[in-house]
Amino acid sequence: MYSAIKTSNNSNSSNLIGIHGYNLVGCWDRIHCEKAFKIASEIGYSLVEVPVIDPLFDTQATKQLADKYGLRLSCSVGLSQDTDISSLDESTRKQGEQVLMTAVERAHAIGSPIVCGVIYSKLEILRRVAQKAQSLGVQLGLEVCNKYETNLINTAGDAMKMIQRIGMPNVVVHLDAYHMNIDENDPIAAIDECQSRLGYFHIGESHRGYLGTGNISLRSILRALARIEYSGPLVFESFSNEIVSPFVTEALAIWRNQWEDGEQVAKHALAFIQSECYKSTDMDVHRYWKVLTLYLPPQKWYTDTRSPWTLDYPPGFACLEWLLAHMVALVDKHLFQLDQSVTRLDIWIMRSTVVLCDLCLAHAVYLHLNIFRKYQPEISDTRLSFVFAVFVLQPSLFFVDHIHFQYNGFLIACLFYSSYFFRLGKYLSFLCSVAILVLLKQTFLYIVPVSIFACTCQRYVARYQTKGMITFCRLFIQSSIVFAFFVLLGISPWIVYKGQWRILCGRLFPFHRGLLHAYWAPHFWALYGCLDLFSRKCIQLVFPHSQMAAKMRNITSSATRGWIGIRKPFVVLPNPSPWMCHVLVVVGMLFCFYRLWKKRHLLLHPIDSMWLWVRAWSGVWLSSFLFGWHVHEKAILMPQFCMLWYCLIKEEDEKHQGLLRWWWWLTSMISTVASSCMVPLIFGCLERIVVLGWILWMMMYLLVVEMTWRIQSRWRRRYLILHQLVLLLLLGLPGIVHRWLPRFPFLPQMLLSGYGGIICGWVYVEMVFGGQEELLEHRSMAGSCSPVVVLVQWNTSKASKTFFEYSSLEEALLGICSCQRTFALFTTIASTPMFAIR
Predict the structure, then answer these.
(1) CA distances from 48 to 16, 34, 281, 514 (A)
(2) Who contacts 337 (Cβ-Cβ below 8 Å, separation ≥6)?
(3) Considering the entire predicted model, what is its pTM?
(4) Range 337-359 average pLDDT
(5) 143 an active-site residue?
(6) Distance CA 706, CA 539 (A)
(7) DSSP assignment letter at 649
(8) Three-state SS sequence of 761-785
(9) Are the C-beta atoms of 24 and 35 separated by less than 8 Å?
């Protein structure tokens, strides 16, 4: 069983995406080598193909610099007329053989597993070179070239015949999309023909320019590679005489430039390849974590480094993986064989674990709704069923958990369990549940101060309010000690193990990953990045010849140019440190403490405490989301789900109709942004159909709103419609940009995150500083809803109407459309007695 983990290093869960060195530099001395590695690493490539026979090639420097920038290497060789091994001249053949032998030795020295290129065709020489390569653990890749460059191997069939005649197992086929477009009748059939020996693949366009702008169906080629489970490198190759040497320009007949900026074309190529052959790694991550926790003892969970998917969640989540692993092991042993490909059964089994954990969310919501039923018996089962459907059928949660494969539904359920104990006044259970939250995910540390403060306020108001602030401080210290005891109890095994505490802290708080995550979340730093780009362009436009403008043109590591995971992502504006981000988060939380203290007398009521408590949590989560370090886009789920509760308040008094609409509007804005910012996570045919259905459904929603909306003021109605249209435009922008503006592949993502940052920042200001205090004094509830909440409670007269009492079909359609999701039909089913909460 232990061997299952040992094989993880040899299994390629995803292809390495690389770039040819001549895309970035024109020669290969130490200076240009470091420049190429630095650019490739910052853009996000995992591999660089190096010209191993370059006259200036430095083996030791290449190896050291590759290790420095964390890159893998491959080698390519091109034989000239003076080194042609098929020549009739004996000295020329010997010289060519010596070149290939040198290439193999250099490849072995720098850690390259393959030497590829046009290295044929004398069989005896190739066989001797292959034997030498095999002894060093190196493969030979025979590149299939078009008929204008060679007459020996023009198709994949020719390469397979040559490999059979050589008779060595370490000789593989090297295909190139550019050459296949010229000589292959059917590139897809060519891939199928050599799938058993395919070891290397070049991605290139028909004109050697920006990918996706030529006549090659690269999408079909990448899908064919995925279908045959090709696990080798995918290397982008595109040459321009702006960069490469005159010798290479003449040899490859590069007479017309398709691009001038190698960095821009390289960045676009990576974005294109990733979008077309995207594979979520979350499946591989959780699969490995299950194997890790199942076969290794707990003291080795955080010290194992044999896989890139190291465990970086707290011990509580590791124990959850351990429990799920034992459950999965009862039905699917194949899932734990990391050296084998994942089957459809494995995927369904892993998905079932997500569904099983999401059932906890349904149960947590059910407990809260039962409290509302107990204290407000006038609420019907139909309305409670709609409210129930609001939480369990969220599009943003569906995108992240069920398509991108994560367990956020379970974490939100645990959050709701803790708030359930708070509403019941069970202090010990509440503090224990908050400790469990921290043990499940380290980001829950943000809510610890406000949770302990609220618990202390509740105890203080209930028993000790007349005894002064000293008693309050004593209660706060008691609650903090109880919380710390539960946390220490959970992590005590890893504190006892020698050296584990420092390793655990390094895994849980990896500040070296940079300020921004791979997909920009709609937070303050996204807006900050847009401002940085605007400032940079203004300086270059107003002062084009200044030293500052020249310095900016030489800077490559910029978040506004599509690079992430770096410590200093901004060029003009100051770069924040991790501690500065934490200070901003804490300052943003202080107002939540003030509001809790001011309204602490409401914490004793099960209904009013819910609204006060949820508002405090929403403010804390929004503060951590907006200003936190390395925030993922999925972090917006926490404030979104907390704010959903506010849309369930029912105000019978016309005096408070505006307050209900105000909260309804805030939740509408943040919910649409939350769902939209998850769209970049969605790839693949089926997933895109889901997103397309959601977008079409949003358009229907806008149409119905235009016809029948009567509850909002005119400016709010117009702005919300404009907001929806802007999101639609931004969601459809990537296709336009990739086709017509290939030099700006990250522009749609930047605009979407920047606009989302404005909306989330405004919602945070309204949430924290808004003066809607009277809302907490009224204890009634109904199933009303924003674009993500299922039912809108209309109050056109003193008597309110339920869902099936609308006066027109348009209003009924609006009630359905207001859920703003693909699965609106399920919410209608939820209104039947079969799904009613009894």
Answers:
(1) 10, 11, 22, 23
(2) 4, 7
(3) 0.72
(4) 84
(5) yes
(6) 43
(7) B
(8) HHHHHHHHHCCCHHHHHCCCECCCC
(9) yes
Backbone angles phi, psi at 221, to 5 degrees: -65, -45
Catalytic residue among 97, 184, 237, 633: 237
Phi, psi of 518 (to 5 degrees): -60, -45
Number of CB atoms found within 10 A of residue 325's CB? 21
Q: Is 140 helix (H, G, I), strand (E, B) or coil?
A: strand
Angle value at C-alpha 385, between 382 and 389, nearest 5 degrees: 145
Query: Tens digits of per-residue pLDDT, 505-525?
Result: 888 887 777 787 755 688 898
Report d(CA 528, CA 515) in Å as an integer: 12
d(CA 449, CA 587): 12
Q: Please return the burial class of 390, using the count of CB atoms within 10 Å of its CB with bins 0-12, 13-18 and 19+.
A: buried
Nearest Cα neighbor of 48 from 58, 67, 56 is 67
User: How far, in Å, CA of 501 to CA of 820, rounded?
Assistant: 45
Which token pair is 580?
């500065």
Q: Pick the catalytic residue: 42, 97, 143, 193?
A: 143
Q: Which of 281, 278, 292 is nearest to 320 (CA)?
A: 292
Give which of 434, 386, 380 is closest to 411, Cα–Cα: 434
For residues 280 and 518, is the Cβ–Cβ distance under 8 A? Answer: no
- Residues facing residue 20 across a β-bridge: 49
Closest CA to 533 of 565, 558, 566: 558
Cα dihedral 288, 290, 292, 293, rounded to 10, equals: 160
Would the CA dihedral through 793, 836, 781, 433 be positive or negative? negative
Return the SS3 of 185: coil
- Is the CB of residue 128 less than 8 Å from the CB of residue 121? no
Instruction: Give me the count of residues in the chain.
Output: 838
Strand partners, 72: 47
Residue-level pLDDT at 713: 56
The answer for residues whose C-beta is within 8 angstroms of residue 140's C-beta and 6 or more apart is 104, 114, 115, 116, 119, 126, 129, 130, 133, 168, 170, 171, 172
Token code pair at residue 399: 């995108």
Longest CA pairwise span in the chain (Å): 105
Active site residue 184: no
Residues 569-594: tens digit of each pLDDT: 787 888 888 889 999 999 999 888 98
Q: Which helix (H) or strand (E) holds 809?
A: helix 809-817
In three-state secondary structure terms, 202 is strand
Structure letter (DSSP) for residue 631: B
Query: Could you tell me the two tokens for 335?
Result: 């899932």
Residues contacting residue 348 through CB under 8 Å, at least 6 positions apart: none
Task: For strands 17-20 and 47-51, give the pairing.
Answer: parallel
Distance CA 511, CA 629 (A): 8
pLDDT digit string, tens, across residues 647-666: 665 544 444 455 556 776 77
